[in-house]
Amino acid sequence: MPEGSRTRGFCVLLRNLILAVLLYAAIFGIIEVSRGRSVRAKGKLGIPALLNKSGPANIVKQTKSKVTIKFGGSPDAITINPHANVFNRPASAVAPKDDYLGLRPHVDTEADLHLLVEECRGTYTGLEKMRNVFDCLQFLANGEDRYYLLPEKSDRASEQDPQHAEYNDADGHGNTLSKYVPVDKAQKPSKESIGTCPGPIIPYHTYWTGPATWRVEVFIKAYLHTQNLACSRLWIWLDSDKNPNAVEDMLTRDALFARFLPLVERGDIRLMPWNFPSRIPLPKNTDGTDSISYYKTPSKPNALGETKVADGITGDADGQQWLVLTPKQMTFLPVAVSDAVRFVVLHIHGGAYFDMDVLMLRDMRPLLLPKEHSFAERWAAHSHPGDYNTAIMSLTANSSLSSYLLRGGVRMGLNFHPRVIGRMAWKDGRDQEFLMLETAAFDPIWTEFNWDREGRCTVPCLRDYSAAFKGKAGAVKDEWESFDRPQLERIGAGTTVELRAQKADGDSGSSSALEAPSGRTHHRRNRHKNDDLRASSAAQGKQAPQDGFSPTSDEEAELRQAGVVADYILEEDKFPPNNRTLENFFRGAWTYHIHNQWLKHPEPSSWINVLEQAHDGFLAGRRTNPYGEKWDGPPVAPYNYWPEFV
Ligand SMILES: *[C@@H]1O[C@H](CO)[C@@H](O)[C@H](O)[C@H]1NC(C)=O
Ligand SMILES: *[C@@H]1O[C@H](CO)[C@@H](O)[C@H](O)[C@H]1NC(C)=O
Ligand SMILES: *[C@@H]1O[C@H](CO)[C@@H](O)[C@H](O)[C@H]1NC(C)=O
């Protein structure tokens, strides 16, 4: 029968198709897995390993146009073009203006958060401006005089009583001082001291699992580059449910994090163990707007004197109320722990939370100082008033709102997905006290990425999240399409590039061009040991996996000596320097959200690499931050190099 055979034919076809898909998935899966491996294997590279062998002669191979190096611990040799590589590429084709934000806002400056919302959103129901990210950024970049204000003296944060501070230890003395240090007496940070803050010290929180990676590094450096350090503290919460020694490991065994230990010592960074609490304190006078229905009569006290006062809420003998997680909830903690961490941490400690893939570009303090500073971000350009994104979030500790959100998430089975929590808040009419800032403020390409943009593209015009990592000439099409200010003048080619590491005195930095590899001189090696600020990866030994590598200045000099690094030739460069500078990187936005991209490494000359160079230049004392300030802190090692982009 034609009818039946056609059906059979179709079935066979379908079966073959499914088999093909399965086979493809299997093969693709295997490729992905082995790819993942090779990425990991690469993590063991280190130039010091090269130097510890019998000398570069047997590891460096030269042909006319390139040099291959076999680094210790790597299965594959790496090809270096001596005329265009990370060691001799000019940082930029233009002279960057580093202090493009002008003076840092006064320490008591407060942002008008409602104005920021309305100016970039339009009305609550109309959302007339929500999709116009360009206009919002213009407002953020040029409208400070409208949305920043310095309150009357008596209303300023620095004039308030530390004993009534919103934060624990807001004065650095356990809230025992009767006054904050006056603005003109405040001490700037120095190598040994974090300085004093005229006004409350605000905690910034983030969360991480496992050893530090480049992502942790770029997050911390962006923080150091932009924030008011005497007035902020960075709390890094480390998952200690999975690894009870997480904090200890990062403090003592983490090669990458080692560069930040002086800042742990100075007090900038606190590593905090995160254990999911089985009970969370609630403020005493919950105001009843939380749709919590308390029992008319609490249960009889148990042996510990605790009574059940509402569904899931226990009161103890001292009258403290606790949100109690059931044993079942404690056994099946959510997969998305980090979604919950931010609500718990902000409820208990207050301040602001940032996902680790968020890079700070401006001082956050003015957003956090207003009395009512509870906010998060919109989920792209979604029009629902409950569609929050909590990658960046601020809540007042022990507030009615923080209690409400927390209890809601627990009641929904520990579901803290921002859009679930957000819709709950909206249903209960509480979304308007939890401000929703538009994407321009924190994640300026999200709207573009979702094809929801109206008006012009942003500056730079990046259409997806990988673009910021791309460094090849022409790889990002039309990135300047919305830029209409005068072009930056290109500086002449042939600019000499100094050793990135601390410049060695004498001639060890000169490129003695393609000298024979045997021209290496041994006695140089120890000469600058003491003033070398960076831990060499050899010293770090076989510790936590490290993706990049970081040669010391002496080692870098040796590579030059060995002819691995010669004179730079622009025409040979795959990643030629360009006119990207932070000044034109989403000007006005407080942060840029990398948005996952967890396996990506920034290519040389990419936007993210430009950001890295700005960080390193600042931390090495060569450049200022966007506020024209010099780094006064302890030395911090620069970013490692990526083997694949040497
Ligand atoms: C060099 O390698 C040898 C053997 O692998 C080792 O014993 C020695 O300590 C290393 N030297 C340095 C300076 O790392
Ligand atoms: C919030 O309340 C809890 C319990 O009373 C307390 O331990 C915590 O320190 C408070 N947080 C702040 C920032 O005051
Ligand atoms: C950078 O160069 C591009 C291409 O030449 C140009 O369109 C753009 O305006 C320049 N941007 C700046 C900031 O100079």
UniProtKB/TrEMBL annotation:
Q: Which Pfam families match?
A: Gly_transf_sug (PF04488)
Question: Keywords for this entry?
Answer: Membrane, Transmembrane, Transmembrane helix
Q: Which residues cross the membrane?
A: 12-31
Biased composition range(s): Basic and acidic residues: 154-172
Q: Which GO terms describe its biological process?
A: carbohydrate derivative metabolic process
Q: SUPFAM superfamilies of this UniProt entry? A: Nucleotide-diphospho-sugar transferases
Highest rank taxon of the organism: Eukaryota
Q: Where is this region: Disordered?
A: 154-175, 501-557
Give the family from UniProt.
Belongs to the glycosyltransferase 32 family.
What name does UniProt use for this protein?
Answer: Snorna binding protein
Q: Which source organism?
A: Coniosporium apollinis (strain CBS 100218) (Rock-inhabiting black yeast)
